[in-house]
Description:
There is one protein chain. The model has no long low-confidence stretch (mean pLDDT 83). The strands form two sheets. The protein has a two-stranded parallel sheet with strand order 1-4. The chain has eight helices and four strands, in the order βααβββαααααα. The protein is elongated, with a radius of gyration of 21 Å. Helix 4 (126-142) crosses helix 5. Helices cover 50% and strands 8% of the residues. The chain is mostly helical.
Amino acid sequence: MMWIDGRSDLEDAPIYFRFYDPRVMIDCFEALDPAHLASLLQPVQHLALPLSPMMGESCGISPLAPRSAFRERVLTIDCPAHGQEPAVTTFRISGHEFQAFGTLQRQRATRKLARELHQIHPHLPDSLILHTARLAADRAGHYGLESIRQVHLYAECMLWHGDDFDRRIPQARLVLMKDDMLAWRKAAALEAWFVASKTTAPTMPRHEQV
Length: 210
């Protein structure tokens, strides 16, 4: 089990820590302090994790690569040296470690979005897909659109109409600037506009390399 320091709302609610999940374990190497990581992993000296598109640049393969590029391949990691302290039974992470896990989770969501966009638009440059995926969550969140589906919709609008469609196209801006509108209603209105915009301009504009 895991406790989180500095989170009063979770003090009495331990979290089940799936450290054995490769997606979680690889994040541990970036999020946890070295001494903390060593105490968790002792007496393990090396780890071999199956490669995945969600693992990021640490595996040396683009997140847009086909799944066959990851199949039957592993990433070997040397674990930090540990002292003679007993292995931990109750695991407590600090506030900054918790924030680091959150950052890594958002990066994974960006990679997932990029792969989805790449599958829909395989003809677009990888650089454009990755650029759009990196920007979409923050841009959509600025207008209160935060769900996975809403961010995906916003990314599609960016690909079709450009990064600045929210400022450049009056119809889209009119929808997005309605601060009193619930997010799901705003997303529905944006989707209706987007579908109509593709009907009037059925060919996706040509994009330059980003």
